[in-house]
Amino acid sequence: MPIVRNVLAVFAGLLLAGAGPVWPQGAKPGASDYPNKPLRMVVPFAPGGPNDILGRMVGQKLHELWGQPVVVENRGGLGGTIGMAVAAKSPADGYHIAMGGSSNLAVAPSLYKRLAYDSARDLTMVANVAHVPYALGVNPVVPARNVRELIAVAKRKPGLLNYASSGVGSMSALAAELLKSLSGAEIVHVPYKGTAPALTDVVSGQVDMMLADLSLVQRYAEIGKLRMIAVTGSRRSGAAPGVPTMTESGLKGYVIEPWFGVVGPAGIPRDIVEKLNAAIVGALKAADVVQRLKALGYEPRPGTPEQFAATLKRDIRLYADIVKRAGISGTL
Q1: Closest by alpha carbon to 229, among 245, 216, 213, 215?
Q2: Which of 89, 106, 128, 206 would bridge with 315, disulfide CB 3.0–4.6 Å?
Q3: Is the separation of the CB atoms in 232 and 127 below 8 Å?
């Protein structure tokens, strides 16, 4: 028994000294029974927007599956970068997650010089949730029924055509800048403070065109207020199968696919990441979720954490090139 007493004494001494017990591999506390308490999800934008809607939808499904509440915390500001910085600095225990997106994960690293986090280094990509199809809408007075004709008009009279965006450095602006870069066309940028006022002026004829959510462009195209001539994804959208992609329209290499996904701080245990990913992927297959995403005009994008991380790295490179070519810069 002296040996047992000595071992216990050493163990107690380590605890008193502040050293935690050494756990066998794969047996860390909380890993096997995760989750055993509420989760916190940071949504880095104000309530009511796409991030918030998707975040609450995912949170509700996790609650239904695990019986643990997912508390949504809206931490908006500076294009979603404030909330993402909070998420990056949270404990890496799997109980602190966030709903990120292309803008604050893939675009922000190139747009802002003083970003408080490194998307690839400081965050764990858990699960891609949804892709937001984008479409090019032009006012019917513009003499172009397809992308080739639009580019021809722009090249024939440089600076004649203009495009609206929801702001400098926004996804709609970057999508248009990629169009300009690949086509060599000179099209004037007219930035707005938000998608709604920008699209309103395109519909009224104050501005010639805009790249925006397919669901918004389609709404006006169906009543003849806009002409939807292309989608920006790698393949045609199920919501508008008759509309060609930019690549099909002659712009080889053109792909803009904005997305939203669940992330967490770097260092979350692998088994917890996999459990979270499996739960979210399963939720995306639920009939009510599929229906909700369809109503929003979004497309589910289930996949592995590795696929999500690869998407992030690819898009960081893509948007860095667009930002550099266009000479865009932001301030924090």
Answers
A1: 245
A2: 106
A3: no
> Nearest Cα to 283, choosing from 71, 130, 84?
130
Do 39-131+258-326 and 134-231 share a fold? yes
Decide if 105 contacts 312 (C-beta within 8 A): yes
Please spell the DSSP secondary structure of 180-222, one letter per residue.
Answer: HHHH----EEEE-SSHHHHHHHHHHTSSSEEEEEHHHHHHHHT
Distance CA 265, CA 179 (A): 34
Specify the length of the chain in residues. 332
d(CA 93, CA 265): 9
DSSP conformation class of 170: S
Domain ranges of the chain: 39-131+258-326, 134-231
What span, in angstroms and rounded, lies between the C-alpha atoms of 249 and 76?
A: 37
Show the CA angle centred on residue 246, arms to residues 242 and 249, nearest 5°.
Answer: 75
Query: Could you tell me if 69 and 63 are in contact, meaning their C-beta atoms sit under 8 angstroms apart?
Result: yes
Q: With beta carbons less than 8 A apart as the criterion, state whether 254 and 166 touch.
A: no
pLDDT, one tens digit for every residue, the chain (332 residues): 444 444 344 334 433 444 433 444 444 444 579 999 999 999 998 888 888 999 999 999 999 999 999 999 999 888 899 999 999 999 999 999 999 999 999 999 999 888 999 999 999 999 999 999 999 999 999 999 999 999 999 999 999 999 999 888 889 999 999 999 999 999 999 999 888 899 999 999 999 999 999 999 999 999 999 999 999 999 999 889 999 999 999 999 999 999 999 999 999 999 999 999 999 999 999 999 999 998 888 999 899 999 999 999 999 999 999 999 888 876 55
Token look-up 């991380």 returns: 309
User: May I ask the CATH architecture of the domain 39-131+258-326?
Assistant: 3-Layer(aba) Sandwich (3.40)
Closest CA to 284 of 131, 130, 72, 125: 130
